[in-house]
Amino acid sequence: MSQCMINRGNSIILDFEGFIDKPPTLCGVWFKEVFKIFVFDSELKGVCNDSDILYSDLTEFLKQKLEDCQKHNLKIIGYTQRELNVFIDSGIDMSLFYVDAKRLLKSWFIKNDPINRPRPFALDSVLTKLGYPDYQFWGKQKTTKRIKDVRDQLINRSQNYSLLTSTTKGKWTKIYKYNKQDVIGLLWALEITNLITTE
Predict the structure, then answer these.
(1) What is the mean pLDDT of residues 118-145?
(2) For the chain, how many helices (H) and strands (E)?
């Protein structure tokens, strides 16, 4: 099997964020060299800016991604099966178009660098081992707490982002940057291991 299994131009990279055992709150999306975040919680609408942070109904978002894949022969790339499971939980079969990047990267390490294989095989560990130049540590398991804090304050401030405290705005910035790092970092990891091609 060729290492260049996926094509950069025909790939959508997704990373969902949210609470355990609940539908995702938001999703970072990279497609055709553009990164955007889609927010699914109506009580987080205040962070949306109509440019790179957009509000969407989750089911409509998932259906649109399936339609895009079917119409344009695209692949959805996620780290682990979590992203695929979001589609499955909504009754959408994305299995024909889904790529589990963790499995690809694990195979790459086993074949090319077994001694330095990350343990546990989390995305941040993979990025660190591969030397991702822009890597930042955003705190262990702090994203959901930050989402809750931003959401609570937006509810109390009638979704007016300008009325949030600087601390809460900073928490949203960290959520955004953390999610973007996961998405763009995954793309970088696939590139540096030659698991994605530009052809």
Answers:
(1) 92
(2) 6, 8
Cβ atoms of residues 110 and 103 within 8 Å: no
For residue 2, pLDDT over 60 is answered with no
* Averaged confidence pLDDT in the chain: 95
DSSP classification of residue 54:
E
**What pTM did the predictor assign?**
0.94
Distance CA 39, CA 46 (A): 10
Bridge-based pairing of strands 75-78 and 98-100 is: parallel
Q: Count CB neighbours of 26 within 10 A.
A: 26
Distance CA 136, CA 197 (A): 26
pLDDT, residue 5, reads: 65
The predicted pLDDT at position 1 comes to 35
Amino acid 167 reads T
Q: What are phi and psi of 45, to 5 degrees?
A: -60, -25
CA distance 100 to 78: 6
pLDDT at res. 108 = 97
Domain ranges of the chain: 7-197
Q: Do the beta carbons of residue 174 and residue 17 sit within 8 Å?
A: no
Residue type, 55: Y
Q: CATH second-level architecture of 7-197?
A: 2-Layer Sandwich (3.30)
DSSP 22: S
